[in-house]
Structures are given as C-alpha cells and as structure tokens.
Amino acid sequence: MRSRVVKITILGIGSLSMMAIILWLVDQGILHLPCFFYQTTGMYCPGCGMTRAILTFLHGEYQTAFYDNALLYFLLPFFFFYGVCFIFQYVKDGKLLLLQELYPKKMIFIGLIVVVLFGILRNCSPFSFLRPI
C-alpha cells in the first residue's frame, strides 16, 4: 500500500505540475490553444472557452469563468468526485477505477447528452449567452 501512495503522489504532483506549466504558458500568452472545431466549422464546440474558464476560475473570477464556459461548473464536480474515488480505490486495493465502475451507464449517457446539447445550444441565437466571451 505504501508504494501505491508514493506512486499516486508522484503521478499527482507530476500531472499538476504539467497542468500548471501549460496554464501558465497560456496565461502569459506564450502558448495558444486554438479550437480546431471552431476553426474548421465556425461553430463553437462544447469545450470552446474552457481553457479561459479554467484560468479565470483559478484566478477567483468565478462569474467570468461561467461566461467563458458554463460547462465547467457541470464538469468540475463530476471529475473531482471521480478523481477522489480513483485515488482512494487505487491506494486501498491497487485497482484502477474505470469511469463506468463509478458512475452508472445511464448517468454517463445523461452527461454526454448534456455536453452535446450544450454544444448545440450555444450556437443558436436565443442561447448566445452560452458562447465564450
């Protein structure tokens, strides 16, 4: 069990460090992550504005993060809960927890429907408030 704690700690620190470096590079304007879906179709995908939303969220600008991509507030609890359960299960049993083992298939399907609907609605005029600012 001790070796699993060390492994998950190293993996966690490495992953968070890489994310922090990438977000810092984006925040400084050194790295630009374009949306290929938007560049190709001219329409917003469900993820358009997510990098900005994460950055503004981390800066404590929660309302701006919502306007950058409201989907962030749907996905954060979902992935946070999964991450905590994944770590707990790995440390406890050494087992890698798959998404479908934690969430029922219906819940995953509903989540995918929400993401797809969000992507469709944000491209419709009455829902232009869902577009990234």
Care to describe what's here?
This protein is an all-alpha fold. Helix 3 runs antiparallel to helix 4. The termini are far apart. 10% of the residues are buried. The model has no long low-confidence stretch (mean pLDDT 91).
In short:
With 133 residues, this protein is mainly alpha-helical.
Number of helices: 7
Low-confidence segments = none
Please tell me how large the radius of gyration is: 17 Å
In N-to-C order, the SSE pattern is HHHHHHH
Note the main sheet. none
Structural class: mainly alpha
Helix content: 55-70%
State the distance separating the first and last CA atoms: 46 Å
Task: Estimate the strand proportion.
Answer: under 5%
* Secondary structure: number of strands: 0
Mean pLDDT: 91
**Shape label:** globular
Helix/strand layout:
Blueprint: H1 2-27, H2 36-41, H3 50-58, H4 62-68, H5 71-93, H6 99-102, H7 105-121
Task: Identify the notable features of this structure and list them briefly.
mainly alpha; 133 residues; globular; 7 helices; single chain
